Amino acid sequence: MNKKIRIIGVPVDLGQAQRGVDLGPGALRYAGIAARLSGLGYQVEDAGNVQVPVRDTLEAERHQHYLPSILKVCEAVYRAGRAAVEEGRIPVFLGGDHSLAIGSVGGVTHHLPAGLIWVDAHGDFNTPQTTPSGNIHGMCVAALLGEGFPELTRVGREGAKLGVLDVVMIGVRELDPQERLRLRASGIAVFTMRDVDERGMACVAREALGKLSHLKRLHVSLDLDSLDPLEVPGVGTTAPGGLTYREAQLLMEIIADTGQVTSLDLVEINPILDLRNRTAEVAVELAATLLGKSII
Q1: Which one is catalytic: 22, 120, 174, 195?
Q2: 137 has catalytic annotation
Q3: Given the residues 65, 75, 122, 247, the one annotated as active site
Q4: Span 76-132, pLDDT tens digits
Q5: Could you tell me the domains of the chain?
Q6: For residue 20, is it left (φ>0), alpha (ψ between -120 and 50) or beta?
Q7: Quick check: is 56 catalytic?
Q8: According to a count of CB atoms within 10 Å of the terminal CB, is the N or C end of the chain lower?
């Protein structure tokens, strides 16, 4: 098993309207993510943050929903992810909003394919034609599948970075009307909160992994808003009725059992809305479980 981790901070808050998620990487560091992962036997290197322009200096891009700057950030994230994999490290991306996944997932799949486990209250499957808000963090899965803004589909390399059979979504509970129609027709395996409620997380997690059994590597993209806001108040876009802490831990445990996790996103942590850095602390514990912490 690869025992080298590279932490890559991505303090991007350009993909959504709510301010504050740019402070997420600092909150995760303050919560002790490096020490927590080192305690599991990993050699942990913190590569610092990729450069992200301050949103208040980008007034000219506001009508474009900051697309030009998001592209630059995602290109940098792509290069960082690709380099980490080439150098034999597990990249752990600290967000920032979920738009960073356009770069992180692209970069870690540059040489070899990987299954994407998208743990999120939202589908992030909008295109410019379907989005009610125009926010780019709601378009990242579509972009990774080669749909939406052509510029986003070309980040790092031309075209789709994944196929629909390479993606599973878990914890979904809030979709825009046209996004819902697109997801139904897409072929992506979507496990909603109703699935979790009716069948239990163990069943959902194992079925989701079965959908990705044709792949040997897994990238987990964990949006903390997949958990219920009562568990994690400091997130970018809250949606009630989410995963409990224990359900999220069980999901991480079952994924960890595969031994196939090769990269991770932790995104949408907003310390401004948080209580004593609780959300970042939860994220650190979930990351530790995914990367090998066990109860016994």
Answers
A1: 120
A2: yes
A3: 122
A4: 999 999 999 999 999 999 999 999 999 999 999 999 999 999 999 999 999 999 999
A5: 4-290 (3.40.800.10)
A6: left
A7: no
A8: C
What's the residue count for the chain?
Answer: 296
Q: Is 98 one of the annotated active-site residues of the chain? A: yes
Q: Which amino acid makes up residue 160? A: A
Backbone Cα Rg of the chain? 17
Tokens 């108040």, residue located: 233
Kindly name the residue from 22, 75, 137, 285 that is annotated as catalytic: 137
Angstrom distance (rounded) from CA 67 to CA 70? 5
Told to judge if 197 belongs to the known catalytic residues of this protein, a careful annotator would answer: no
Of residues 269, 266, 235, the one with CA closest to residue 37:
266
- With a CB cutoff of 8 Å and minimum separation 6, the contacts of 239 are 121, 122, 173, 174, 225, 229
Q: Comparing C-alpha atoms, which of 291, 264, 277 is closest to residue 117?
A: 264
Name the phi and psi angles at 94, rounded to 5. Answer: -105, 115
The structure's pTM equals: 0.98
Q: How many CB atoms lie within 10 A of CB 241?
A: 14
Nearest-5° Cα angle at 117, 143 to 44:
100
- Which residues contact residue 56 at a Cβ distance below 8 angstroms, ignoring those fewer than 6 apart? none
Q: pLDDT (tens digit, 9 = 90+) per residue, 185-206? A: 999 999 999 999 999 999 999 9
